[in-house]
Structure formats: C-alpha cells, structure tokens
C-alpha cells in the first residue's frame, strides 16, 4: 500500500511531538491493534521468546530477517559512516524492509532498543529517526524499547507481567542456547536439536499465555525436562574443536552482524559456546551498584538494582542447576563467578560497551575448555576494542592456553578475509588438540586449568607491578 494512503490511525501518527528538525511520532493506544511493529533480530532464540510474549500481549511484532548487500547499502546511505556498525546495519535493515513493499506503511511502526548507558547505543534511536526523515519515512512511529523510562508511548507499555515473562524468556533462551550448542554438532539425526528448540519455545510460550512458566518452581521443572530432552538426543561423541564467541552484543549474536559466524564454525566442524544474554542484563544492573561503591551517590538506586539482580541470579541458578545435573553438558556460569574472573584483569569500573564483562567472558570460556575464542568487534566501537582486543595480551599472561582472534566487522570487511583469519586460529586450535593441549570439556568453574595462574598468584594482580609511590 502506498505511503500516502493513510487511515485515521495513520493521521494520528502524523502528529509529531517535540521540536527541532527531527520530530518524534508517538505510538498511540489506537495503533496497538492495527500496526505491525518491525524489530531487528539479535539472538534468535531469545528474540523468538520476546516476540511471542508481545504477541500474547496483543501486539503484532515481526522480527526482521532481511539481509544482504541492500541492507548495508541502505545503512551506508542514511547513517554516517563513522557510526557503529550495529547501528548502520539495524537502520539499513529497517529501511530495506520499509522499501520492500511487504508492509502497509500507514500501519507500520519500528522498534529500537535504547540502553540508557553512556555508550552510543542510547542514541541509535535518534539516528534511526534522522535516517527515516532523510529517506522520506518520517511519519513512521519509532518505539523505544528501554527499561529506564527514557521514552514513553501510550500504545506500548512494559507492564510487570511482561517484564517478568521477558526475564524468564532470557533465562530460557540462555538455557536452550547452551543445550542446543552442545548437542547440535554431535547429533546423529540432523535437525534434532533445532526441532527441540522450536518445540520448547512453543511449549513455554503456551505456558506464558496461561500466566505460567515463570515462577522459580515452574522454571525448575521446565529446565529439568528440557535438559533431559536434549540429553536423550542420540549423538556421536567425536572430538571437535571448541570455540567460544564473545564481543559487542549485536555482532556477537546476530548472524547479520557477524556474517553467519556460527554457521561458518559449524562448517569447520567446531562446537560453539556463546555466553548468555542474561549476563549482559546483570552487568548493566551491576554497573550502578559498582558506581555507588566506587564513587558514592545513587545509593537507593544501587540497592534496588542489587535486589533485582539478586532475583535474576536466582532464576539463573535454577537453569544452571538443571543443566549441571547432566555430566555431558557444561552449564553457563553464575554471574557472580563470571564477575570474579575479571578481578585482577580489568576493573569493575570499565562499563562502556560490554566493559569488563567482555574480558571476563573470555577468561570464563578458557576456564570451561572453550579457549579458542573469536572476539567479534564492530567498526566504530572504541570501548569493546579496549575491553576485547586490548585485553588479549593481558588475558594470555594468566591464561596461556587462550587462543583468541579478534575479528573486525565493518561494511568494507570481506567475509573471506574474516574467515581466513578464523581458519588460522582454528589451525592452531587443531594443533593444540592433536598435542592433547587445551582444556577438557567437562571443566567446571573453579577447577584448575593447565598453565593457568592461580587466582592467588601475585602475577595475576596487575597492580602489584605498578611502581611504588613510597
Ligand atoms: S558498544 Fe560499541 S558498537 Fe555498541 S554502541 Fe557502544 S561504541 Fe557503538
């Protein structure tokens, strides 16, 4: 349908808020029933839950899966080329979808997350509105998806049950991702793990629809059955190179951002481990708590966030305990443990981008036996270059078995070049595997790792090497 053919709801959308050259089009209550909300996909399993939760709540949400050169070109055309690559891709993907002819543009809205932190991700939404205006789509409402009360829309409200379900969805997403990644490379019948993922997403969505599935008890029961289902998949236990993926949150999870990295690693006969999305949420909550400890102020906010974090960590425990009951599976680490791994390597005050979490995840992967690591780094991302690529030497001082390759993702980087660099890392990994080096799969948090310095070793404490001021 033409963009000029607008109904009454469309006319309402055309009323703009705010002043200045880039107006904000509100998403009103009337739009909720009629509009299709287009949102980018990041982590497919987690986002499938989120989409279903919003569908249950009466929204029409569609996750965008358009990809290809068109997306990059749209991004390059309407987003400044110095901007972070994830912003360029997501905005390009939305513009490409709007031009595809698939949607009635008088009844289409876009959804973009706004982190509210100090990083540029808080401003992607303004870049999107600017791009829409330049491309002639300035009457399309853009909904800010945030938990910090940054922008509000009368037609899009994050109610308490929705937030509960989304949190539970993230925990389920982390559990399903961990289990399927450890079963898929070994399954005898191709597609068995993927079918189980689909079945469990549908089952849990059905429970959410009946206001069930997100109490601790129900989650514990679901995770026990889920782990048992995956454990029952017939598999061949052939040794494979174990590769961890870390990096900036979008390029780490989104196949559009990382050129289908997980598929490429599967084609190279690898087993992949990707740290969960829940840890990123806990990391953002923990930021204010650490800031309070480091700089003072914001005590009430810090206490509230610490309490919410504690509750989420209990949910995480439920998932970890259920998976840990099966010796074949390596469960995700507890957030508190992941955080402790950063001690002596990077300060908890490093909170731009993925901050200390990115460094801690690399140490965690080494600890779990996934020390061959691809560190995905988008163009324009200064904080993650520091906490990712910038920390590799430091990590290798304490974790000599770490075999980390930083890979840059930007519009001009070729897939061939990226894959060749990863292949070099895999060649070293295979050599180590043949020599029996590296770490065993069943490594549990806290076990000693060959060649790794003990946490009490003074060489892990960088401050011990600082010149004395005495
Ligand atoms: S983390 Fe990096 S890519 Fe993401 S907004 Fe910040 S600078 Fe940009």
Description of the molecule:
This protein folds into 3 domains: 138 residues, Rossmann fold (3-Layer(aba) Sandwich), CATH 3.40.50; 111 residues, no CATH class; 166 residues, Rossmann fold. It is 49% helix and 10% strand. It has 18 helices and 8 strands. A 4-stranded parallel sheet has the order 2-1-3-4, sandwiched between helices. A 4-stranded parallel sheet has the order 6-5-7-8, sandwiched between helices. α12 packs antiparallel against α13. It is globular, with a radius of gyration of 23 Å. The N terminus and C terminus are likely disordered. Iron/sulfur cluster binds next to α16.
Features:
single chain, 470 residues, alpha/beta, Rossmann fold, 4-stranded parallel beta sheet, 8 strands, disordered N terminus, disordered C terminus, binds iron/sulfur cluster
Q: What's the alpha carbon Rg, rounded to whole Å?
A: 23 Å
Global morphology: globular
Instruction: Quickly count the domains.
Output: 3
The distinct bound ligands, ions and cofactors come out as: iron/sulfur cluster
Distance between the termini: 75 Å
Q: Largest beta sheet: what is the strand line-up? A: 2-1-3-4
Task: Just give the CATH class of the largest domain.
Answer: Alpha Beta
Largest sheet: 4 strands, parallel
- Please report the number of helical segments: 18
CATH topology of the largest domain: Rossmann fold
CATH architectural label of the largest domain:
3-Layer(aba) Sandwich
Number of strands: 8
Strand content: 5-15%
Structural class: alpha/beta
Order of helices and strands: HHEHEHHEHEHHHEHHEHHHHEHHEH
Helix content: 40-55%
């Amino acid at each position: 349908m033409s963009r000029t053919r607008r109904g009454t709801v469309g006319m309402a959308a055309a009323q703009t808020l705010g002043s200045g050259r880039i107006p904000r089009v509100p998403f009103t209550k009337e739009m909720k029933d009629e509009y299709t909300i287009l949102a980018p996909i990041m982590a497919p399993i987690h986002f499938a839950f989120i989409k279903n939760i919003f569908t249950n709540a009466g929204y029409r949400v569609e996750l965008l899966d358009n990809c290809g050169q068109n997306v990059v070109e749209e991004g390059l055309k309407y987003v400044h080329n110095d901007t972070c690559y994830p912003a360029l891709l997501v905005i390009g993907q939305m513009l490409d979808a709007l031009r595809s002819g698939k949607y009635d543009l008088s009844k289409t809205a876009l959804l973009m997350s706004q982190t509210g932190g100090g990083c540029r991700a808080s401003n992607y939404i303004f870049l999107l509105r600017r791009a829409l205006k330049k491309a002639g789509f300035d009457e399309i409402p853009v909904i800010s998806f945030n938990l910090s009360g940054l922008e509000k829309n009368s037609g899009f409200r994050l109610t308490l049950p929705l937030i509960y379900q989304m949190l539970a969805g993230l925990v389920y997403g982390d559990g399903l991702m961990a289990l399927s990644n450890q079963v898929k490379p070994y399954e005898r019948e191709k597609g068995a793990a993927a079918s189980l993922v689909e079945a469990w997403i549908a089952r849990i969505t059905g429970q959410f629809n009946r206001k069930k599935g997100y109490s601790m008890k129900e989650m514990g029961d679901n995770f026990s059955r889920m782990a048992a289902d995956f454990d029952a998949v017939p598999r061949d236990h052939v040794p494979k190179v174990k590769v961890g993926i870390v990096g900036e949150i979008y390029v780490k999870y989104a196949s559009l951002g990382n050129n289908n990295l997980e598929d490429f690693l599967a084609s190279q006969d690898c087993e992949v481990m990707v740290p969960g999305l829940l840890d990123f949420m806990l990391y953002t909550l923990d930021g204010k708590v650490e800031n309070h400890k480091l700089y003072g102020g914001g005590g009430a906010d810090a206490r509230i966030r610490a309490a919410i974090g504690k509750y989420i960590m209990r949910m995480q425990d439920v998932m970890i305990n259920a998976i840990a009951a099966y010796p074949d599976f390596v469960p995700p680490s507890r957030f508190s443990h992941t955080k402790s791994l950063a001690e002596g390597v990077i300060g908890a005050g490093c909170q731009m981008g993925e901050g200390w979490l990115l460094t801690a995840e690399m140490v965690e992967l080494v600890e779990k036996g996934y020390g061959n690591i691809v560190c995905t780094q988008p163009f324009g991302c200064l904080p993650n270059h520091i906490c990712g690529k910038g920390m590799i030497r430091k990590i290798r001082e304490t974790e000599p078995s770490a075999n980390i390759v930083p890979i840059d993702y930007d519009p001009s980087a070729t897939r061939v070049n990226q894959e060749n660099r990863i292949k070099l890392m895999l060649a070293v990994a295979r050599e180590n595997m043949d020599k029996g080096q590296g770490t065993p799969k069943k490594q549990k948090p806290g076990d000693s790792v060959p060649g790794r310095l003990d946490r009490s070793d003074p060489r892990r404490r960088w401050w011990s090497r600082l010149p004395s001021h005495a």
